[in-house]
Amino acid sequence: MDTSDIINSIVAFTGIMTSVLTILIIQESRLMRKYYSTPEISIYLKFAEASPSLMFIYIENLGMGTAHNVQFKILEDFKYYQTYAEKLVDKGVFKKVLQHFYPKQQFKYLVDSLHERTNEELKNPIIIEVKYSDEVGKSYERLFHLDIELYDGGSMITPGDTHMRVISYRLEQIQKDFNNLTSAILKSMKEKDKKSE
After folding, report:
1. What fold does the segment set 41-151 form as a domain?
2. What is the per-residue pLDDT across 127-175, written as a single tens digit (0 to 9) for each?
3. Taking CA 154 as the corner, what is the angle to CA 151 and CA 160, rounded to the nearest 5 degrees?
4. What is the C-alpha to C-alpha distance for residues 84 and 79, in angstroms, rounded to an integer?
5. What's the rounded Cα separation, in Å, for the pair 88 and 137?
6. What is the DSSP letter of 52?
7. Are 154 and 52 in contact (CB under 8 A)?
8. 66: closest CA among 103, 118, 25, 16?
9. 45 and 151 in contact (C-beta within 8 Å)?
10. Which of 6, 65, 68, 166 has the most CB atoms around its CB within 10 Å?
11. Where are the domains positioned within the chain?
12. pLDDT above 90 covers what percent of the chain?
């Protein structure tokens, strides 16, 4: 094998490797473009920061792309709303089509208080169907089963396990101290008035 054959072999090998790397780069580029243009809508339940009984529903676009013509349909709603609570179907995005749902955009709605609820009242999940499309018109359809029963027994430690709960606890303590101080001052003033009569 002479030098020209070796050089030709090296050039051929280099050409093949360049072609393979180019294909890999193109595939990676497509995946990155898809990642940055795909919306990912998530719906989940979460307790309020300062209360372990107030249940909220969060609707969020976790993806990097904007979702278009987003339609939310509640197939099964929470069945045991308290009298002061509005049903989910009467709230925000559940009432009409959301034209654009941007990345990291979030909606939050109160479901209800779970305080003193029976197991039977928490048994049925909230089921929500979501339909939307991405930038290129590809359609998506997702079904969310939000199992409220999983959140039964939520409790709060004192003073709390988050900054918001600690702040809430401290404010409650300040309010109690202020009320006690006010009561003591008013009682002292009444006793002083009685003595002056």
Report:
1. Immunoglobulin-like (2.60.40)
2. 999 999 998 889 999 999 999 888 766 555 556 656 666 776 677 778 8
3. 135
4. 14
5. 28
6. E
7. yes
8. 103
9. yes
10. 65
11. 1-37, 41-151, 156-197
12. 30
